[in-house]
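> call design_seq(struct)
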């Protein structure tokens, strides 16, 4: 009787272990969707609050091609805010308001550190990023006047993103993930400031490096096409 119970226990343990041991590495493809992200956006014009973080929901997807503990990934992120406001140049100088659009496309790899149910991983992506602002700049000092200026600012260029994260395999076909990354952003920037009634126009261009911290990005991953 005791031997029978022990045998049943060992059998159940082996079955449970095999179920939990199945990870995304057992599937050829995975699709991950970012449900929530907390990110730093590129600086706009002479924005003063550049250290602020922006909350984003459902802003990106990742397609992965799995090869054992390494996955090759293609990702895309998109964010749009039609009501962005920030202090420009200094806290009492100007107030800028308008809409901002930010998107990127990247390709890279992801390296898992184990095959367990909880999988820490390292990733590195490289690609293209675009950030565009369209709006107006209003003086905050009454002595300067109340004349608003039209502003268009854009940044386009290279982005490189080292990432640390982890996945939790809920069931073989489903995982949740969370990760943190740092964006090294090298861009060509164009600032176009126009006075009312087109009386004057100022255009400035720059090449800049920016280092943008993304503390957390979390979402869900679906695994397809089992290798077994």
């Amino acid at each position: 009787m005791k031997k029978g119970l022990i045998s049943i226990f060992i059998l159940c343990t082996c079955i449970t272990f095999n179920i939990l041991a199945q990870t995304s590495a057992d599937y050829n493809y995975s699709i991950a969707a970012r449900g929530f992200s907390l990110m730093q956006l590129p600086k706009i014009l002479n924005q003063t609050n550049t250290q602020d973080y922006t909350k984003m929901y459902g802003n990106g997807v990742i397609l992965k091609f799995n090869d054992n503990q390494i996955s090759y990934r293609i990702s895309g992120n998109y964010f749009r805010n039609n009501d962005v406001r920030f202090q420009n140049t200094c806290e009492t100088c100007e107030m800028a308001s308008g809409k901002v659009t930010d998107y990127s496309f990247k390709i890279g790899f992801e390296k898992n550190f184990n095959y367990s149910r909880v999988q820490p991983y390292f990733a590195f992506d490289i690609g293209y990023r675009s950030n565009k602002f369209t709006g107006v700049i209003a003086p905050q000092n009454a002595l300067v006047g109340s004349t608003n200026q039209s502003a268009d600012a854009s940044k386009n260029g290279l982005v490189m993103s080292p990432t640390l994260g982890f996945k939790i395999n809920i069931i073989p076909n489903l995982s949740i993930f969370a990760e943190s990354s740092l964006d090294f952003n090298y861009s060509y920037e164009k600032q176009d400031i126009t006075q009312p009634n087109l009386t004057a126009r100022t255009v400035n261009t720059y090449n800049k490096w920016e280092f943008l911290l993304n503390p957390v990005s979390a979402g869900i991953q679906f695994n397809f096409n089992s290798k077994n």
